[in-house]
Amino acid sequence: MGLSALLAFGVPAKYARRFSPQIQMVFAPVSRPVAVVAGWINNRVAPPAVADRRAVQDIRQENQQLHVQVNWLVTQLEELSRREQERSQLGDVKGSCRFVKVIGGDAGSRQSIFLAGSTLAGIRDEMYVLYPGGLVGQVDGAGAMGVQVRLLSDPAFKVRIEFRRFDPQKGQSDKLQIPLVVAQGDGRDGLMVRGLSLAEIGYDAQGRADPHGIRLEETDFAVVADTDCPSLLQGETVGRVVGIARRRSAPLMAEVRIAPATNLKKLSEVWVMVKEN
Amino acid sequence: MRWLSYILLAYLSIAVQIGLSPYLAYHEASPNLVLLVVIFIAVNAPRDAALLACFLLGVLQDMVTQQQPGLFAFSYGVVALFVVATQQVVYKEHPLTHLSLALVAGLITAFFLLLHGWVLPPGAKAMDHGVSLPAVRLHPTVELTRVVYTALVAPFVLGALQRMKRFFGFQAAKRRSRMW
């Protein structure tokens, strides 16, 4: 017990975690079926709540624009598929992502998920993990018997982001004139941005919106814009702005809350980016 | 104590905790089912076996969380010391015993988690473009919700486990533990 106390309180996390074996796969035979059953019941009993507060008309308009965009993308996709098929005949092209099933969530009080993958499948520490809605997190502990992913909502996760807004007229999203900033997991299923002043996001010191300039609004998107991340990851969606408030400890600074499109701990499958370029 | 039964229970509790925790979460807090197994072992098993078993459960749980290794092992060791000391004075089958033990054990665990989060915050203090970003710590409200949630679940889980007590061969401290 003395050793465990020393390990817990005396040794920095980055060193202590090196000696922690990854054995999550051992629990997969039980935890995976349990998660599947729990997920099914959860969807039946309490379907995911809709956090979108936009007017129905706006959603319809965006839907229409997206239809147009999807049609265009489908055409592009068909063309790309044809090219990809031709290139695959050369035999040296592999996808940059690997599909992996999720075993379950963190057994403690942090924000992580476990994957039914291993280093034998080419998964390594610090690889990024994605799902159709955007970024999930980063591998933080890959072993022969399991992979642990630090979710972007974990307090230890940081990524530099930019804000974008979907323009229904253009049918695409535009970058807002707001400086790049670090978003950090809040430990409560989301992220927060605390490095921007109220003025930088278009609000005055009282928190009132500037009527003339561009201001950050709820439902704007946060996307990855981090030079430390692989180039393929740039522009990947992190989440949507769900709250803008003043920082209690610094009243002239803003605290922007960002939420991913879904509860990342309930994902059943993800993609691990095994090749960065 | 039958160690094979213990290993099976430990395996099942960790696996169920991993599989169920995202779906049982209430305000980001899910019940700590492993802690309930710790209480079950500590309240029934002989002192030395109970301390070792609870410590090992903590070691196992440390392996499947982002928390610092050793944190749950240490917390469960302290919880076991407390629960073992109450063995002779509590009515082991009563739901109120389960509820109160889970509440105290949960508070002890939460105390160490929060203390650790305060001393070594998971999201360390940082600078961004000259702006100081304070450290992000574990939320006490989430941890306290977890404590209450675990305590509310305790009478059901511990009640079911108490009915299976005979499979674990708990016995007086004088008799030796056996593998089977």
Q: What is the CATH level 1 assignment of chain B?
A: Mainly Alpha
C-alpha-based Rg of chain A, rounded: 21 Å
- The whole-number mean of residue pLDDT values of chain B reads 89
Please give the largest β-sheet of chain A. Answer: 6 strands, antiparallel, barrel
Largest interface: A-B, 71 and 59 residues
Strand content of chain A: 25-35%
Please mark out the parts of chain A with pLDDT under 50 across 5 or more consecutive residues, or reply none.
89-94
Description:
The complex is a heterodimer of chains A (277) and B (180). By secondary structure, chain A is an alpha+beta fold. In chain A, the strands form two sheets. Chain A has a six-stranded antiparallel β-barrel. The N and C termini of chain A lie far apart (46 Å). Chain B has one domain: Arp2/3 complex 21 kDa subunit ARPC3, CATH 1.10.1760. Chains A and B meet through helix 1, helix 3, strand 1, strand 2 and strand 8 of A and helix 1, helix 3, helix 4, helix 5 and helix 6 of B.
Topology:
The complex is a heterodimer of chains A (277) and B (180).
Chain A: H1 2-10, H2 13-16, H3 28-45, H4 56-88, E1 97-105, E2 112-115, E3 128-131, E4 134-143, E5 146-151, E6 158-167, E7 172-175, E8 181-185, E9 191-193, E10 221-224, E11 237-246, E12 254-259, E13 269-273
Antiparallel strand pairs in A: 1-2, 1-13, 2-5, 3-4, 3-13, 4-5, 6-7, 6-8, 6-10, 8-9, 9-12, 10-11, 11-12
Chain B: H1 3-24, H2 33-44, H3 47-63, H4 71-85, H5 95-119, E1 126-128, E2 131-133, H6 140-163
Please tag this protein with its features.
heterodimer; A: 277 residues; 6-stranded antiparallel barrel; 4 helices; 29% strand; B: 180 residues; Arp2/3 complex 21 kDa subunit ARPC3; 2 strands
